[in-house]
Each structure stands twice: as C-alpha cells, then as structure tokens.
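Subgroup meeting minutes
Present: P.N., E.W., G.H.
Scribe: E.W.

1. P.N. recapped why we're keeping a running log of single-chain structure predictions: easier to compare across weeks, and new members can see raw inputs and outputs side by side.
2. G.H. added today's entry (73 aa).
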Amino acid sequence: MKTYSNFIEINADKRFGKPCIKGTRIAVYDVLGWLANGMTLQNILEDFPEINEEQILACLAYAADKEHKIRVA
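Output recorded in log:
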C-alpha cells in the first residue's frame, strides 16, 4: 500500500482540522468508528460510494501510525 498521506489530508477549514479522506468530508475517526461498531468494508463501500477500499485501509494505516507514535509520559 502507498503511504496514507496520498489519501488522508488535514485542512483547518474542513471538519475542524480533523484528518479526512482527501476529496471528502469523511474523517478518519468516522471510518474507525464504523469499523469498531461492526460495519464491514463492504458495508462502508455500499453506504459511501464516494470512497474506496484503499482509502479505508489508509485510515487504518493512519490510526496505526498515530498509535505507534504516542509516547508514554
């Protein structure tokens, strides 16, 4: 998979600066929430045809990278 930065953007004028899928107002947080609540990739793709599987996986990669970078104080 290409780096998630090809699919995720942070724009202060969109969703209060939350990371979103490029070209949409769908936040990484939204995608993670849907998956955590039991939606499958197929469910998400059917409900949100403006995004694709690679973008959903980029959200997971973004979250994994962010988690990896958290430092314990």
